[in-house]
Design brief:
The chain is an alpha/beta fold. The protein is built from 12 helices and 12 strands.
Length: 290
């Protein structure tokens, strides 16, 4: 039987007991709070359209609703995108800002993330515009312009504490992914490698690039290595190059994603932070490693 999850943003929750009870009255089932005022679950809702009913009751409140299966709810592998998922920014756009060309590059990034452009071609085009950028400037951007997305470290550390394997797989760059992957606590990091001539970018990236196929293949490989089925995996991302792994995972989550991506994902989180992925799995506030 399924579980209906209601999840708000911990920083500004709009999920109060009255709203949860209003949803419960329409769906039936048993209400259980995972984190009072932040996340709850309705176990075995009686309505056959529980998700649609919940979203209608929620209306304009900044509360996410998701329907997840009870069986195998806690996942053993987490595969996560980096840019605009585990961090708040798009690293390549912030590098472009250092050269005064952010609008030009950000437009290409946005179109690529919506799936309007071939990812590899769009990456090559943008990296070429960064030619000559110094390593020390890149490190300054990493230090001063990039911020961790709320709840990310709690997500990774909690899943690891309960035996899961975590991988950061990014279409971005190792100079960022290795650094932030370590800070967040991922077991493994895979990303694209920018090429340098001395201390300056050549405007090229090593091939083959990490793209949507790489992400899906990595998910499948990690499951096979650990003798797990894909139903025991979770994937999270926001852009078109994340869709294949989101579709393939046992629980695929689009977080603060482009509309086309959110529409295709099994679960969409529009309001909550990354701890939402723990509540989806049935973790309580007491379980979370902070």
């Amino acid at each position: 039987m399924p579980v209906l999850c209601l999840i708000a943003n911990p920083a500004d929750s709009e999920l109060d007991p009255s709203l949860a009870e209003a949803v419960l009255r329409q769906t039936g089932g048993e209400l259980n709070w995972l984190n009072h005022g932040i996340a709850c679950e309705i176990i075995e809702p009686k309505s056959t359209e529980a998700l649609e009913v919940a979203r209608a009751v929620i209306g304009t409140h900044a509360v996410d609703a998701a329907l997840v299966p009870t069986q195998g709810r806690r996942k053993q592998i987490l595969l996560a995108d980096m840019d605009s998922t585990m961090i708040n920014e798009e690293c390549i756009d912030e590098l472009a800002a250092a050269l005064g060309i952010k609008p030009q590059v950000a437009e290409i990034t946005e179109r690529a993330m919506r799936g309007e452009l071939d990812f590899a071609q769009a990456l090559d085009t943008r990296v070429a515009l960064l030619k000559g950028l110094e390593r020390k400037v890149i490190e300054e951007v990493r230090r001063e312009a990039i911020t961790l997305a709320p709840g990310g470290r709690a997500l990774v550390q909690t899943m690891k504490a309960y035996g899961a394997y975590t991988a950061l797989v990014s279409g971005g760059f190792t100079i960022f992914a290795d650094h932030f992957g370590k800070r967040i606590g991922f077991n493994e990091v895979l990303a694209n490698v920018l090429e340098f001539d001395g201390d300056r970018l050549t405007g090229t990236v090593q091939k083959p690039i990490v793209d949507k196929d790489t992400k899906r293949t990595k998910l499948e490989a990690l499951a096979a290595e650990r003798g797990l089925s894909l139903s025991q995996t979770m994937a999270v991302g926001d852009g078109a190059n994340d869709l294949d792994m989101i579709r393939a995972a046992g629980m695929g989550v689009a977080i603060h994603a482009k509309p086309a991506v959110a529409a295709e994902a099994g679960v969409r989180i529009d309001h909550g932070d990354l701890t939402a992925l723990l509540y989806l799995q049935g973790y309580t506030d007491e379980d979370i490693v902070r």
